[in-house]
Amino acid sequence: MAAPVEQETDAEPAAAASTHAPVVVPTLGAAAGEALVLRGVTKRFGSTHAVDGIDLTVPVGTFYGLVGPNGAGKTTTLSMIAGLLEPDRGTIEVGGVDAAAHPLAAKKLMGVLPDRLRTFDRLTGRQLLYYYGVLRGLPPAVVESRTADLARAFDLQDALGRSVSDYSAGMLKKVMLAGAMIHSPRVLVLDEPFEAVDPVSSAIILDILSAYVAHGGTVILSSHGMELVERVCSRVAVIVAGQVLAEGTVDEVRGELTLEQRFVELAGGLSDVEGLEWLHTFSG
């Protein structure tokens, strides 16, 4: 069992090269290794196997995509990685830290963007980011400095003084992602980070995440956007009915097909439309 890693320091790292990238980037303890390791992870809800013996290995510095149909177990898997759910069986290691034996040490290494956004919507954006920062143990001066950097990177300067309840879906996604990054985590666990986000905001988020990975951070995300996953992810796992049916580099998983075609094939093909002939009769 690996011992907990040392806590991050509060020293500011060098600025990222990307135009939109914040200066907070991960401080890695090793040049290479495994950011996440799941072995035999299982979760049941009643008689339903939401996740059924999943094995995953996510190398450090990887943009890792988790794809699958609705109800496949993606959100449950990410929730267990983030420590929001406890597996029934199996082990999860984050940066070599056993998440069951050392949950606080594992959580310190992660930034999390959950699927269903819940936040303190009566706070302003600035107050929310301050809360995220001090909750992670950062000194107030560091929180203020990083808030300014993140607001500039995510194009949120004009919104920080407004209540979060007034934010659009895309703005809310950006401020919560900024909150997930404020403590300079080694791993980002993101559930549908591009859902309901406009193209401009998507480009900004993708630019920031790409710079984060280029500097040694690790991103594991779920997405329904096959084209985006195919374009930005270096590795991908296809989960269907709580099991990993394919895993590897994007090229290995898709083979001669597009990733979307391979995904449809693994998910069981297209649905049977026979019996819907009445839909073409048009009422009225």
From TrEMBL:
It is a peripheral membrane protein. It comes from the Bacteria. Keywords: Antibiotic resistance, ATP-binding, Nucleotide-binding, Transport. SUPFAM superfamilies: P-loop containing nucleoside triphosphate hydrolases. It comes from Microbacterium jejuense. This is ABC transporter ATP-binding protein. Pfam families: ABC_tran. Residues 36-266 form the ABC transporter domain. CDD domains: ABC_DR_subfamily_A (cd03230). GO terms for molecular function: ATP binding. The keyword Acyltransferase does not apply.
